[in-house]
Amino acid sequence: MDEDEIDYETTERHEHFKGTVISRKSVAAFVVKIIQTPALASRKNLGLNKPHSDADQPYFI
Questions:
Q1: Range of the domain at 22
Q2: What are the tens digits of pLDDT across the range 15-59?
Q3: Residue 50 located in a structural domain
Q4: CB of 54 within 8 A of CB of 32?
């Protein structure tokens, strides 16, 4: 999404992936956080989504 927001949550491997959308700004903020603190995501399989965006498909389809 192109919304001007930073709002995300992560899921880890073997957790049910929750949401269907994420803003580009949220992804960028998370990448910066990983660059600043590499141990945060080291050797992890992470999913990223907007909280409370659970659905069968993204809302913008």
A1: 9-45
A2: 988 888 999 999 999 999 999 999 999 999 999 999 988 876 666
A3: no
A4: no
CA atoms within 13 A on the CB side of 54: 5
How far apart are alpha carbons 58 and 42 in whole angstroms?
A: 29
pTM of the entire structure?
A: 0.81
In a domain, 61, yes or no: no
Domain assignment of residue 26, yes or no? yes
Instruction: Give Rg (Cα) of the chain.
Output: 12
Count of all residues that appear for the chain in the document: 61
**pLDDT band at residue 8, thresholds of 50, 70 and 90?**
very high
> Domain tally for the chain?
1
